[in-house]
Specification:
Length: 90
């Protein structure tokens, strides 16, 4: 059973409810960040790097279709190596 516990930090309860809080400013900042990210993604998709990544992706898919057992062994080996490398040491 979960319960919500109200937390009041540094007198936030003293702000009158009629005054707009920083919600409008936060919404404006989020909108600006969203627009910036959209511009960055659009410019990346138009770049040569994106075309190279798509080409590599298609080559990888084709290799996996032609050699499924070998691809599975490679991924199992990489997973085992990373698992041993990143495990906690006691």
């Amino acid at each position: 059973m979960e319960q919500e516990v109200p937390v009041i930090i540094h007198g936030e309860h003293d702000v009158p409810s009629g005054e707009p809080r920083e919600d409008a400013a936060l919404a404006g900042q989020l909108k600006e960040i969203g627009q910036t990210l959209s511009e960055v993604v659009t410019s990346f998709r138009e770049s040569e790097s994106y075309d190279q990544l798509e080409k590599i992706y298609e080559q990888t898919k084709e290799y996996i279709r032609k050699n499924p057992a070998r691809a599975m062994l490679y991924s199992l080996g990489a997973g085992a190596f990373l698992g041993l490398f990143m495990r906690k040491r006691r």
